[in-house]
Structures are given as C-alpha cells and as structure tokens.
Amino acid sequence: MSEPSRHSAEPPPPDPAEAASVDPDEVARFAALAERWWDSHGAFRPLHALNPVRIGYLRDRLCAALGRDPKAPHPLTGLRLLDVGCGGGLIAEPMARLGAAVVGIDAAAENIAVAKLHAAQSELAIDYRHDAPEALAAGGERFDAVLALEVVEHVADLRGFLGACAALLEPGGAICLATLNRTAAAYLLGVVAAERLLRWLPAGTHQWDKFVRPAELVRLLRDEGVTMQDLSGVFYDPLRDRWVLGRNLQVNYLAFGVKRGKCGRKGGREAQAS
Ligand SMILES: C[S@@+](CC[C@H](N)C(=O)[O-])C[C@H]1O[C@@H](n2cnc3c(N)ncnc32)[C@H](O)[C@@H]1O
Questions:
Q1: Running DSSP on this structure, what letter comes out for residue 132?
Q2: pLDDT digits (tens, 9 = 90+) for 196-253
Q3: pLDDT tier at 153, thresholds 50, 70, 90
Q4: Ligand 1 contacts CB of residue 155 (under 6 A)
Q5: Ligand 1 atom 11: the closest Cα is on which residue?
Q6: Does ligand 1 come within 6 angstroms of the Cβ of 86?
Q7: Domain 13-180+208-259 listed as CATH 3.40.50.150
C-alpha cells in the first residue's frame, strides 16, 4: 500500500465562515452588498462620510502610541497593521497610504474580491485574505496594530472576537475599535433615523442588542491584557456637514487601547467608561 502523500495528510485550512465570531446572516448581508463598497452615495455612504474623522483619529493615536511623527508624509512606514472586517478596504487603503504594511481580512469572500480589485486599481500593495481573526491568531501571526472599525456590532461571539484581536497584537501594539453604544439614543439615531427615516443605511443593517457599551469593551479587552487609552464619541455636525470627535459616547464611538507587555511602549492610563 502506498504511503499517503504529506499533502493529503494536512488538514484543510479552516473555513472562515465556521469561526465562532462569524454570524452567517450578518456576513451574508455584507456579501450581498459587496459591489457597492466604493459607491460613496450608496449603501456604505455613512462609512465614506465617517472616513475623514476615522483616518485622522487613527493617524494621531497610532503615531502617539507607537512613537511616530504624525506630520511625516508616511508616518506608519515599517508598521504591520491588520484591518479585521475590512469590507471593501475603506480603512485598509488609507492606512496603506500612510505607509503601513496592511493585511486586511474579512469573513465575506465577496468583500475580499472587491477589496483586491480596488487596491490593484489604486496601485496599493495590500495583503487581503478571506479569513476570521481566530484562524489568523491560531496561525501565530502578530501585528503592531489591529483595527476593527464598525465590526464588533456584527459579530457572534464578542469575547472570542476581542480575544483573537488581542492575541494578534505584539506586546505594546495598539488596537482600535469603532462601534455604537447600546443606549436609547443609539437606537433612535443609529437605527430609527439612519435606517428608516434618512435611509443612510439599508434597513436591518444594525441590531440594537448587538451594540456594545464602552465599559464592556474596556472590561473585555482588559481581560485580554489591553489597557484602554482613549474613548471618543463621533457625531454628525449638521452646521459643518461632517462627522467630528467629541466626548459624548452615547451613540457612535471610537476606542483605542494598547496591549501590555515588554517592548518599551507605554500602556498609559486607562480610559474611564460607564
Ligand atoms: C460594517 S462593515 C465595516 C467595514 C470596514 N471595517 C469599515 O469600517 O469601512 C463590517 C465588516 O465586518 C465583516 N465581519 C463581520 N464579522 C466578522 C468576523 N467575525 N471576522 C471577519 N470579518 C467579519 C463583515 O463581512 C463586514 O465586511
């Protein structure tokens, strides 16, 4: 009897769709909209509108935490950055333009196909993969920064998702999350107004009970060795017709933390959340 080849004895790579953090209904909803990622007037219009404030926040916070000059033309050069739930690449591309070596993962293969095509058209070298954070963490890869913007309110297992994101960080590495708070105000503005009245988002995009309170993020990340350094609200200013940062965390907010451990970077004082 012939020996089985080494190749056939290797287990197949894990299917991202089977990762515990993946909610198949949520991912299917995004996959169905994959062709629209780069239409700034389409289904992802709010993410396009949020991008200037998100990118400015990321640049400034990453530079402060990782010892970079935010005024440099490519301040993130030399950093390995993972964008979890990258969608079509709305955040991965600007991070690559700031100089980071970007890996983007998403549980929807359709999103990864669109992201790859757009990066090629934009002449950006981004390593996009159809993957979930648990599988990547199990493979042992580590990053200087992990981003998951507008993702945690769509996952099935928040603790497992955050644990995998934290495991993917080098000690001293930075993590940034963006989500919606589980408040009455977020229900009115993030669901009723955004989906039903203004129709900024397709109906059914958000389930209020999956919104995450800042204190929950602080506690869950602390359990994974991450110190929250900043919590900032993000809200729409109709007078300036743009999204801006503020202190009010009642609706949309950004959270930024640093993984404790050696490597000389400071964990800093923990941000307070209620
Ligand atoms: C609202 S979109 C955010 C896209 C992007 N981060 C941005 O802010 O422009 C959420 C994305 O997360 C992906 N996603 C949801 N759960 C995931 C998981 N467990 N692992 C990886 N991707 C996930 C979805 O497929 C979708 O593309």
A1: -
A2: 888 888 888 889 999 999 999 999 999 999 999 999 999 999 899 899 999 999 999 9
A3: very high
A4: yes
A5: 85
A6: yes
A7: yes
